Amino acid sequence: RIPWLLLLMIASTFTGQIIEGFEAQLAAIAGLTACIPMLMGTGGNAGGQSSVTVIRGISLGEIEFSHMFKVMWKEIRVASLCGLTLATINLLKLMFIDRIAVDVSLVVSTTLIATVVIAKLIGCILPLFAEKIKLDPAVMASPFITTIVDALSLVIYFQIATSILPI
Predict the structure, then answer these.
(1) In this structure, what DSSP letter does residue 98 have?
(2) pTM of the full predicted structure?
(3) Distance CA 18, CA 47 (A)
(4) What does the pLDDT profile of the chain (167 residues) look like in tens digits?
């Protein structure tokens, strides 16, 4: 387990570098910073759900590598429903409870949809690839999902923010 954790620890430094690269945007609109843990956590949780479902299917012999596109299609549909539901509730919370501006709330909620979709796709694909290359998906998939999704959710977040907000 130590080599996996060491590799993932090093890979997680990219998350810090992504945040550093967007320091000006974060300084311009402080509300963006407060939403980072929620976006990353939700992405990791969404990816973890897909991963567990696929790993269970693999272990029961119900899912194999040749089913990848069928599994991906199912996860896209589930992710779309989950993402839209979470984003709608999040948008209302940000605007009416947290009193965050509409444009910032839209950036966060749009990012949430994209993050959930990408996380669920990664969550279903990684265990299948791990199984294909004879690695234990239960040991390596979840930490890799979290690391990959954290970095991708930040990139998506800042890309959406810089395209919508006056930064």
Answers:
(1) S
(2) 0.88
(3) 20
(4) 788 778 778 877 888 888 788 787 777 677 788 899 999 999 999 999 999 999 999 999 999 999 999 999 999 999 999 999 999 999 999 999 999 999 999 999 999 999 999 999 999 999 999 999 998 998 877 888 988 999 999 999 999 998 998 87
